[in-house]
Write a structure and sequence with these properties.
Structural class of chain A: mainly alpha
Distance between the termini of chain A: 50 Å
Helix content of chain B: 10-25%
Order of helices and strands of chain A: HHHHEEHH
Largest sheet of chain A: 2 strands, antiparallel
Order of helices and strands of chain B: EEHHEEEEEEHH
Strand content of chain B: 35-45%
Shape of chain B: globular
Helix content of chain A: 55-70%
Oligomer: heterodimer
Number of strands of chain B: 8
Number of helices of chain B: 4
Chain lengths: 127, 165
């Protein structure tokens, strides 16, 4: 679906495309698979009860959002995650559970360390 | 020393909220401090592998502002900022949160409570989104990621042995 931007703001259009791309669970699953390494359309279609044309439509959305690119093997045309700053920031954002699970695991470790240390003077209130 | 694993519980609540629940084997005050003191927050707040907290400014008072910056691979950066609406150490923390552009369309209101029971700190964060769409996008994002396992027990034991030396 073609959207007309009312603000002619390329970053806003880009963001819309990214959000739109991420809003679909199949596309998120495709990104998850590509996080493990590049894959062809056939390989990507395998886990889904979905035709290759349907997968290709999803891949096009991801490509237009700048989240994946196509490798040079003309036959296989492997897709891979685009590693630019936008894609990385998006990756950060798109798994809420992983973000917090990782943070809280580290907090567990820190809390253990802090309780194992001998008591120190209280730190300053301002940094 | 074995560490009990604690599970992060995340659920939608109503149309606009996500609730996170987690237990920590620590006093509530220590968890509260880990959340509000930059020198502690920087040691655990970061996100996925390869990300770290590169900026942490906290003006810890009602009406005070905070600003966090996270840096990641390939020059990636993300930040969030907000204002403290209510503070009551160790049991309550209320703040707004807005991500930096390009994810800055909506603002969240986060109500965090920390209570102690059975020697554990019970942490509950209610994140209230401005729209159902924003909330659902966050909820929908869970489970799609595939990341490396986090086994920090070995590293932790090594660190503790170093501390004891």
């Amino acid at each position: 679906m073609q959207r007309v931007s009312s603000t002619a703001d390329p970053s806003s259009d880009r963001l819309d495309a990214v959000f739109s791309a991420l809003a679909d669970p199949t596309r998120r699953a495709i990104l998850a698979r590509l996080a493990l390494g590049e894959a062809s359309v056939t390989e990507l279609a395998e886990p889904f009860a979905m035709s290759q044309p349907a997968i290709s439509r999803h891949l096009k959305v991801l490509e237009q959002a700048g989240l994946i690119t196509t490798g040079h093997d003309a036959q296989r045309r492997p897709r891979r995650i685009e590693g630019g700053p936008m894609a990385e920031a998006t990756r950060w954002l798109w798994d809420f559970r992983q973000f917090w699970a990782a943070n809280f695991d580290r907090l567990d470790d820190l809390l253990m360390l802090l309780q194992a240390e001998p008591p120190t003077g209280a730190g300053g209130g301002h940094h | 020393m074995m560490r009990l694993s604690h599970t992060l519980d995340i659920q939608g609540q109503g149309d606009l909220e996500i609730v996170m629940r987690r237990q920590f084997r620590a006093p509530a005050a220590l968890v509260y401090d880990a959340y509000t003191r930059p020198e502690l927050l920087k040691r655990w707040f970061g996100g996925p592998p390869g990300w770290w907290m590169s900026l942490c400014e906290i003006d810890l008072r009602v009406g005070g502002a905070y600003r966090f910056g996270l840096s990641g691979p390939n020059g990636a950066a993300m930040g969030m900022s907000g204002v403290y609406k209510d503070l009551d150490r160790p049991g309550r923390l209320v703040n707004t949160e807005r991500f930096d552009p390009p994810f800055d369309q909506t603002e969240q209101l986060i109500t965090t409570t920390i209570t102690e029971a059975d020697g554990l700190a019970h942490f509950v964060a209610v994140i209230r989104y401005e729209t159902r769409e924003a909330r659902d996008m966050m909820l929908g994002s869970m489970g799609a990621g595939v990341g490396p396992g986090y086994d920090r027990l070995e590293a932790l034991l090594a660190e503790l042995q170093g501390e004891a030396a």
